[in-house]
Amino acid sequence: MTDQGPICDFCSSLSPRWDYGCADFIYGFVLSSSGVKEYINRGGWLACEECATRIDHQDWEQLFVRALPVTQNRSAATPIYIALNLVRDAQAGFRTHRTGTKVSFG
Length: 106
Prior knowledge:
By secondary structure, the chain is an alpha+beta fold. The protein has one domain (18-97). Helices cover 37% and strands 28% of the residues. The protein is built from 3 helices and 5 strands. The strands form 2 sheets. It has a 3-stranded antiparallel β-sheet with strand order 4-1-5. A two-stranded antiparallel ribbon has the order 2-3. A hairpin with a 2-residue loop joins β2 (25-32) and β3 (35-41). α2 (60-72) runs antiparallel to α3 (80-97). The chain is globular, with a radius of gyration of 14 Å.
């Protein structure tokens, strides 16, 4: 697999423009046959221009909607309803643990 470089952490756009500082946080646990998987956010989030606009306007529902195509195309290892809940919980954690204003990226 080729390294595609930085991506928007919300919609996976290949053109992140902004960096939002964020503290580390746990946003989910999933129990599977191989044990418990812990989902942890580590550090800041990158955002493309469109996602940054949604963040700046606190349009959380549309920010979630922008993640849907990526979530639907994910690995089949995680059922879609769990993946969607993880995305919603991660974005809620971002809102709670954000550490300031956006800064230009790149």
